[in-house]
Design brief:
The chain has 385 residues and is an alpha/beta fold. Helices cover 39% and strands 17% of the residues.
């Protein structure tokens, strides 16, 4: 099978060079940490996997169409249970959320677009996106920031991981007006959740052969809240003597990422900082359209884009880059342990390195449809296996 695939993609491999091809094939298929619960057993050839699909807002539905088209062309045995959950389109309710949760509890795995949260306050502080994360306890968000082989940026050959606690912190949805004109917004940091995300980060580093974990904080100002997070990380670090541990203040971290991102390996941080750093780091390698992400609880895994951006201005214009969502779908297959089909899905990303099939955000002229069509055609014409 692997040999047949290599022959199928040989024209592209020659154009890239063997080292570039090997770099792409190995990197893009090693993003899912598989740290939540036990790993899935090796998939049978006739197995069909049910996956919850939430297209979300903005270009999310278009990206999900791309995923479905590619999976169909690759004969990938995944059956999607699709649910439309959107606050901005008035397609969100507690009843719909319950249906999504029921599907997730059965399937354990989901692929999701961005569920956009309106800025207007309408009597409910917690968004449906946050409710979904809390009810499934999706505490760990993982974003693997990789340079795309063949696409040049200011910093090439980047390879770092951002791990974010995403069930508390500044996004606790606890705000109130204490007196007219004065708003209090509570930031919640707990020892248990801080230690849990720190352990997740060190376990990830251990499993992936990474050498350093850096805790990102603002403990010089928020001495109690971020101080507790920092203390928890330091305590957990003592359990992993082979992993180097450092800490850095969030504002300095932003500057260092722009100036010298190579000093970082795995970064772990509270909620808000992770949101900011995810987007900053995505900008270093090409933008929101190329970085995949995933969220984990002890039971569930949700695959999505790393920089959560609905890109509403692109809806219907056929210009969205499907790369991040397709990479996330490949990571989902890896999580499901669909090993043979994962190779098929991973091989298609050779198109990321060819200027002939590159979307506008990466300086090309191809549309979303052009990119997906090229991938689909190559999968359809691959040798039988």
């Amino acid at each position: 099978m692997a040999a047949a695939l290599r022959r199928s993609f040989s024209p592209f491999v020659k154009g890239l060079g063997a080292s570039r091809w090997q770099q792409l094939a190995s990197r893009q298929l090693s993003l899912s940490p598989g740290l939540c619960g036990s790993e899935s057993p090796l998939a049978r050839a006739d197995a069909i996997f049910k996956v919850t699909m939430i297209p979300g807002d903005g270009v999310g539905p278009e990206l999900m169409t791309a995923v479905k088209d590619v999976f169909k062309a690759g004969d990938i045995p995944v059956e999607f249970e699709e649910f439309h959950l959107s606050e901005v389109q008035h397609m969100a309710s507690e009843d719909k959320l319950d249906h999504v949760l029921s599907s997730m509890k059965n399937n354990k795995v989901a692929i999701k677009g961005k569920i956009h949260t309106p800025m207007e306050y309408k009597g409910e502080l917690a968004s449906y996106e946050m409710k979904l994360r809390r009810k499934l306890d999706l505490f760990a968000n993982v974003v693997h920031v990789n340079s795309l082989p063949g696409y040049s940026t200011r910093h090439n050959n980047l390879d770092l991981v951002i791990i974010r606690e995403q069930t508390e912190g500044e996004y606790s949805s606890l705000e109130h007006e204490s007196v007219p004109g004065v708003i209090e917004c509570l930031k919640i940091i707990t020892r248990d959740k801080s230690r849990r995300i720190a352990k997740f980060a060190f376990d990830y580093a251990t499993k992936k052969g990474r050498s350093k974990v850096t805790a990102v904080h603002k403990a010089n100002i928020m001495k109690l809240a971020d101080g507790l997070f920092l203390q928890s990380c330091a305590e957990v670090a003592q359990l992993y003597p082979k992993i180097k541990y450092e800490n850095i203040i969030i504002d300095n971290c932003c500057m260092q990422l722009v100036q010298n991102p190579y000093q970082f390996d795995v970064l772990v941080m509270p909620n808000l900082y992770g949101n900011i750093i995810d987007n900053l780091a995505a900008g270093l390698v090409g933008g929101a359209g190329v970085v995949p992400g995933e969220s984990y609880s002890a039971e569930y895994a949700v695959f999505e884009t790393g920089a959560r951006h609905p890109f509403a201005q692109a809806v219907g214009r056929n210009i969205a880059n499907p790369t991040a969502m397709l990479l996330s779908s490949a990571n989902m297959l890896k999580h499901l342990n669909v090993l043979v089909l994962m190779v098929v899905c991973g091989s298609m990303f050779v198109y990321l390195c060819t200027p002939q099939v590159r979307t506008r955000d990466l300086g090309g002229y191809s549309t979303t449809g052009d990119f997906v069509h090229a991938v689909v055609e190559n999968l359809r014409h691959r040798p039988a296996h």
